[in-house]
Design a protein that fits this description.
The chain has helices spanning 2-19, 38-47, and strands at 25-29, 50-58, 61-68. With 75 residues, the chain is α+β, with helices and mostly antiparallel strands. The protein has a 3-stranded antiparallel sheet, with helices on one face. 13% of the residues are buried.
C-alpha cells in the first residue's frame, strides 16, 4: 500500500512540476506529498530542472522552495 501511495504522490508531483515549467521558481508543499521522503521529492524535482533553495513553515505546512537550475533566485 505504501508503494502505491508513493507512486501516486510521485505522479502528482511530476504533473504539478510539468505545469510550472515556464516559471523561474516554485513552491511545493511537502504536506501534499507526505508519502515521499525529501530525497525522493528532490529527485523528482531535479528531473524537471529544479534545485532546492530553502524551506519554511507556512499555514499550509512545510513550503519547499525550488529555483530553476541556471536561473537567479528571485527574492
Amino acid at each position: 500500500m505504501r508503494a502505491l501511495r508513493r507512486w501516486r504522490a510521485t505522479s502528482r508531483l511530476r504533473k504539478e512540476l510539468r505545469q510550472r515549467e515556464a516559471e523561474p521558481n516554485t513552491v511545493v508543499y511537502w504536506d501534499r506529498y507526505r508519502h515521499l521522503s525529501k530525497a525522493e521529492l528532490f529527485a523528482v524535482a531535479e528531473e524537471f530542472g529544479w534545485r532546492y533553495s530553502e524551506q519554511r513553515i507556512v499555514p499550509e505546512g512545510w513550503a519547499l522552495d525550488f529555483v530553476r537550475v541556471g536561473a537567479a533566485k528571485v527574492v
